[in-house]
Predict the 3D structure of the following.
Amino acid sequence: MSHCPENKDAPLPVKSRGKSLLLSLPMLAITASMLAGRGAFATNGSTFAYFASLFFLNFMFYKMVRTGKTDKYRAIVFITLAGAAAFSFMSFFLELRGAFGVTPSEIMRGEVPACHMVLPMLFLPALFSKTIVFPGLITGGFASIAVLTVFWAAATLTIGKGYCSWFCFLGGFEDGFSRIFKSPVIKRIRPDLRLLPFAVLLTAVLTSAYTLTHTYCEWVCPYKMVTEFEQVVSLKLLVQSAIFIFTFSLLVVALPLLTRLRTQCAFFCPFGAMQTLAGKLAPFEIRIDTEKCSRCGKCLTECPDFSLDKDSLERGKPHISCHLCGKCVDLCPDKAIFFHIKGTSLKTDLEAQRIFFLYPAFTFLAGITGMNLQQALLRIINFFA
Amino acid sequence: MTTLKEKIKQAAGYAWAAAAFAAALAALSSHEGIGRGIAATGLRISPVFSGGELARTINRKGYSVFIHRPVFDALLREKKEGFVQVDWGPAEALPARLSETLDLDGDGRAESILELETAGPEVKLRTEDCRVGPAEKPLLVEKARTVRLYQEPEPPSGPADMKKITVRITLRKSCAAVK
């Protein structure tokens, strides 16, 4: 493997301001209409939150288009939205129930806001027993199961596994922590760990079907730390709480810091495993031009999903764990890695294909999860007002 | 030189990407309608959480006792051990002490006596039926706080906003299942 020359970076496909603005206009229209939900202009504070969110998100999109850098600006938005989501969720729950934890009463009434992580566990019981094994609202209300299913299906159809880097804001925490240190402390990782999420998925699906409960969410999910968790009213709930604090500390904070990888996403997440399978329907993928690639190995050390190795450089494709974050596309000094629409040429229109990918991906990132930024800003404004 | 086959593949690729994005935008803009469609398939929240459909209501002076159907639900068949949920409500109208003779399995013969202090966490279950018991601690189920976007069918356990006391009692299919 040759060493990566310092100044070998090919010029980025920088576009003119006019062309970049023109290409950004459709996204402005999409996000403007999607963020203009109920109450967006109800008060001066909500109007400010709307326009501030709209400006920030669309400025980032404009920079993506103009500079040709995808991951650099995606990560800024993704990490910001993760923080905003945690803040707005937790303050919302605190306001709703006067405490962070979900009460037994809410569970019995089926009023727990749902999370997309539970979806893989719902399908088998829904199919065989026509029941939803989650105590949430099927329709209506905040984060209902039906609406999450529609969002998931729409995102899967368009960006596939890209869901994990563009829509699942929970991954933003790991993304943030994995970028703190310049080089990893833990460098050797077993390649077969890539298969672990499938084992977790299978276990979660089977145990949920057997017990008719959402076992992964109840017992393991680390993201309860930043969204919602059950109030500790029994020994069982104390054990469950200890587990999610441990998994969050280990998989979302410590290991991403030490490995510079998104460890929960790459090695544990059952939802991500499901996306790997369901995402095959999507038209977008990452490809590598094996002729252009100088095998410098920069992408191998920087890929946060553990999706690239020597073998993938030879095959011209990353491993199935690839989240389409675009970090390798940004970093490749040979410009040999690119977003690609399946079926199209590997040699032409590569920048057009990246832009084609950015529209749906950014729609999910900004148009839907961007609402969390709006909510977070509004809550901060209301707090100080 | 690009062949016709490659051109067709190229066009199909772009068409697929554009169609998927259009379909996603359409789905996102009409997600509430699609959601209602999903709900109309008859899916319901698992009785493991909801307590099962309401089987019988006993009206007392100022309050009611709601007995749900026994829940033995499993993915394909039924489990040997399940539970029966009993609610008392509205909570504001309940006497300080409740003593109820109940037919939990719905066979037309009362087999259990349940006693509880409405202000306290303890419950006492007396029964000669080996399939019944123990009872979980009573739970005060408060009024619904969720902001509902549109009207949904009433939950099966009575008025949607009723504050009630709920107790779940273990019930087995047969005494042979008792270990």
The first strand of chain B starts at residue 44 and ends at 45. Residues 145-157 of chain B have pLDDT under 50 and may be disordered.
